[in-house]
Amino acid sequence: MKKIGLMGAMKDEIAPLYEAMTDHREETVGGVVFYEGVLDGKDVVLCCAGMGKAQAAAATQLLCSHFCVDAVLFSGIAGNMTSKVSVGDVIIGKTLVYHDGEPRMFAETAPFLQEFASDEKLIAAASAACEENGIRHIVGKIATGDCFVGDSATKNSIAAKCAPDCVEMEGAAVAHIAAKNGVPFVILRAMSDDADEEGFEKLVGKPFDISDYCRTAAKISRSLIARL
Ligand code: ADE
């Protein structure tokens, strides 16, 4: 893979990757700042897309058609929905789904999919990267929607609808647009909370330092890139 697109939704999520890059060149397209450079010997384009599906989709399209990346790697945090892992552990998205919206209607046009599968080779590289760094992880289902899930009623209704392993706000949109462009992708998420009232208090209710989780996600991204 010649050029890899790296994305996060928040500044904290991309900061550890930005700091590790060399030869930074900056270009703003469509209101998004993209940093081209070299990370561990690989050509990369890094951006902070902003939160939510629309911003994730827009930045993914630019990575694919303006920067012509050969793969897209999203790294960030998520709310845990499974007992298989805990806060601090990582979920690698095998499949990405929307828990809101109308996936059946979305699938009436290309790429005609209601769920999106990460690239098998990128999943294998991500799993190996977690193992190398001693980070507990599973390969599972990630559900995306335009809200922070911070109450048990919403969490339970999402679980009943699509039984994901974690919930976040960008992955399926990144996956959807990467798939539409025929570009392989993988989504990595470090668990920052349990998508419940406590998680809401921790992440939304008061300022909270998420840099530890972001560093975990970024560490795996770097080991993964080194394997490509
Ligand atoms: N990102 C991190 N935690 C989340 C949550 N509980 N809901 C949605 N996105 C998240």
UniProtKB/TrEMBL annotation:
Q: Which InterPro entries match?
A: MTA_SAH_Nsdase, Nucleoside_phosphorylase_d, Nucleoside_phosphorylase_sf
- Domain of life, per UniProt, equals Bacteria
The record's annotation in SUPFAM superfamilies points to: Purine and uridine phosphorylases
Name its pathway. Answer: Amino-acid biosynthesis; L-methionine biosynthesis via salvage pathway; S-methyl-5-thio-alpha-D-ribose 1-phosphate from S-methyl-5'-thioadenosine (hydrolase route): step 1/2
Any single biological process term in GO? L-methionine salvage from S-adenosylmethionine
Per the UniProt entry, the Enzyme Commission number(s) are: 3.2.2.9
Q: Name one GO molecular function term.
A: adenosylhomocysteine nucleosidase activity
Per UniProt, residues of the Nucleoside phosphorylase domain are: 3-198
The membrane-spanning stretches of this chain are none
Q: Sorted alphabetically, which Pfam families does this protein's record hold?
A: PNP_UDP_1 (PF01048)
Q: What class of enzyme is it?
A: hydrolase
Q: Sorted alphabetically, which keywords does the UniProt record give?
A: Amino-acid biosynthesis, Glycosidase, Hydrolase, Methionine biosynthesis
Kindly indicate whether the keyword Transcription regulation belongs to this entry.
Answer: no
According to UniProt, the name of this protein is adenosylhomocysteine nucleosidase
Q: Which organism is it from?
A: Candidatus Ruthenibacterium merdavium
